[in-house]
Amino acid sequence: MHVTLPDGKQLDLPQGATALDAAKAIGPRLAADALAATANGDLVDLMTPLPEGASITLITKKNPADAAPVFRHSLGHTLSQAVGEFYGRKGYPREAVKRGVGPSIENGFYQDFDLPEPLKEEDLPEIEAIMREIIGRNLDITRADVGKAAALEQFAYDPYKVELISELPDDEPITFYTQGDYVDLCRGPHFPNTGRLPGAFKLMSTSGAYWRGNEKNPILQRVYGVAFATQKELDEYLHNLEEAKRRDHRKLGRELELFTIDPLVGKGLPLWLPNGTILREELTRFLREQQFQRDYQGVVTPNIGNLDLFRTSGHYQNYSDSNFSPITVDDEQYMLKPMNCPFHVRIYASKPRSYRDLPVRLAEFGTVYRYEQSGELNGLTRVRGFTQDDAHIFARPDQLKTEFLSVLDLTVLVLKTFGLNDVRFRVGTRDPESDKYVGDPAQWARAERQIIEAVEEVGLPYTVEPGDAAFYGPKLDFVVKDVLGREWQLGTIQVDYNLPERFDITYTGEDGQDHRPVMIHRAPFGSLERFVGILIEHYGGDFPLWLAPRQIMIIPIADRHNAYAETLASEFKAVGMRVEVDDSTNRMNAKVRSAELNKIPVMLIVGDQEEARREVSVRERTPEGHKERKGVAFTDLLAELQERYRTRA
RNA sequence: GCUCUUGUAGCUCAGUGGUAGAGCACUCCCUUGGUAAGGGAGAGGUCGUCAGUUCAAUCCUGACCAAGAGCUCCA
Description:
The chain is an alpha+beta fold. It is built from 20 helices and 33 strands. Helix content is 34%, strand content 27%.
């Protein structure tokens, strides 16, 4: 057989040769340094026969990060082996530890176990130490093909492995990987020797996980680890974790008094405190302005509606699991609204519509209620009652693409305003295999095509995810990366041919006949709760001036300056800015510290010098620390801050 | 919803089978100060809730409530 090397050279090798054979054929140094390889772009290990004619590259200790999924997988095995030894030392037989799956994942690996007694977090350092011992033993990792019968016999004690093996085809060989006395059923790939595994790993946590992810199955104990090619990367990762903790919106939400969640009110039902309410109001004001420019019309609809409304829309039938139970009043049933669209459809239907009226764009900051599983609730990012920046566009089919593009444009503008420049789009399309979708497949295909055309026109990266559509139509989700590189799903745009059908809404066309409009559902923020939660973490609580709940703190140096401070404050208030005077009996240093801790972006320090000349001394928070300007004329500063607020700079 | 962990003052957290402590925040007094903590005093808790064991429970047991991590889910 032959393989092709990166420089285009062909290499002749005996049949069944592995990447290690290829490396040896090139040179002994390379063979000694090799860790893994790629064949036709896929990661492979050094022990597996290469496919005939493959283009291969070798991964060596010079670029170990390229083999990250491989060493993470091998570390997973090493974890598995270490846990076996850990229970062995406690006196359990080796059969007592049963194993689920253990793949490599982003940044690390995990392994599921069925253990004779639960593993505690305190045990992790000891297990990690055993892992390092195993690495120190320099065990060769070998690969072997075994027949199905022999495989079943070898793992007879482990029902999970038996289940996995049973499902493999009868005629194909089953691969085992062995390191020392540890053997596991595994497809690979793996490192050639435990001694080559990087030391930059750490066991992080344990948790429960259902066998094969199905909640009807037994729960296994999962151990998570992170692993990198170098200590530097591991340190960076751990530092980012710390940073994420520091920015946690639940923590900042409490410290900055943005919101609270009170068990007496109900879980998943956040209370917006005065400071958080300012954030919300600034966001809605911003979006209202943008929507006004784009000819949206505001509407307001109630929080509950007749059950028949939701029967007609299909929400009652299709989402029965995640609706709040209906409320019976007199002889009628009502439901808390899980979506605003049925109400907007009825507003559309409230009068005859001409083709000249379309598109009709109805917008509402509408609060909806969904019964999320209690384990899913999380701060502001996953709640049971939330306000969508919702709008529904009723358009003629020929207007769909223009409207869709205009919505995309608005969305990109919104995200850029918050410095969320790293955006990708996810097109959720229908899974032809599934029957959860309603409507005509031809219409689906048309809508999917139009979405993809629109996204391509905008030129931003996108992926297509079959099976990710809503039941009534394809959708486009926006996924942004925040400053820490974490991905968040924000708003969504959905094309809907179904609801107009279900509610039988029409418009009169040029031809005098009734025609069916198409609907676009869209929410650039998604929900205000979630968006604010993400913004808190994105900014780490350091909001730009226009969003900051507390914009300006005036700090009199001594209390004889309080009156002057108050006159300045009233001028800021007159132009609608949020200002306070710190007239506490603290010293100035403590006042500065307090304003810093409260992340107030602008501090104005006023003493004798400032008062005499109607000046202020400005201290502003910056990402690097702070910036001071002394002897600034107050009228200039007022104009400057007012302009920054107005332009949302 | 499931598994595990946690629940002590507004916040962060010590602690004990004999009904509780620190720091910060808060209130008051002194201090009138120049860019991240001046000093002193005081107030503040049914130790998540309800049962049980015990002479005695914040501590042990159970149930419930809530939170956290993970799994499953997300129009």
